[in-house]
Design goal:
about 190 residues, mainly alpha, 9 helices, about 65% helix, about 0% strand
């Protein structure tokens, strides 16, 4: 796959995230009310919308760079795979957040960030490909502080979005193994 196509997709994704944050800023935070609100029917709309909504510019900026890097890595497996993995993470993790999280509006691309980390790690393990395993090890090293957040309860931060995103990504890593990856297993 050419580098240009993944960069184009990442650019579009970042433009959407920035556009949503501009809209949230203009409306004095009204867009944040469309995040996931657990166990309320109105909160279900947040499941597909939450990854695009951020409560502040700082919130968006903390998610944008890791999302771009991780998306680029997963996009190397193909656009279709990337879309299916992101949809699986968004709807699986979002549903779990809706069912089990504490009250409040849960939003942010960190669900996808943690999900893509889980996907890359578990896809490497289940595909049994040394290159993917080395890539996963590099991701673990580079994002160790992000992964560490899975063990921390920080006030105002949706631990459940991080946790369920990571779990959904791990499941996706097992589910979305291609026949080609299975046939190329090296260890």
């Amino acid at each position: 796959m050419l580098i240009k196509q993944p960069l184009h997709i990442i650019f579009i994704l970042l433009v959407i995230l920035i556009g949503m944050q501009i809209l949230n800023t203009i409306t004095a935070g009204l867009v944040s009310n469309f995040g996931i609100y657990p166990r309320y029917i109105n909160g279900l709309i947040g499941i597909p919308l939450a990854p695009f909504i951020h409560h502040s510019w700082q919130h968006l900026l903390s998610n944008a760079a890791p999302l771009a890097v991780l998306a680029f890595i997963v996009l190397q497996q193909g656009v279709k795979r990337f879309i299916w993995v992101c949809l699986f993470i968004t709807f699986s993790a979002g549903s779990a957040v809706w069912l089990f999280a504490s009250e409040g509006f849960h939003a942010g691309a960190s669900t996808l960030v943690f999900g893509l980390i889980g996907y890359i790690i578990c896809n490497a393990i289940f595909s049994r490909n040394i290159f993917n395993l080395l890539l996963a090890a590099i991701i673990c090293f580079l994002y160790a502080s992000v992964i560490y957040l899975l063990t921390q309860f920080v006030p105002g931060v949706s631990w459940s979005s991080h946790f369920f995103g990571f779990i959904a990504g791990c499941i996706a890593g097992k589910l979305f193994i291609s026949k080609q990856q299975k046939s190329q297993a090296h260890y």
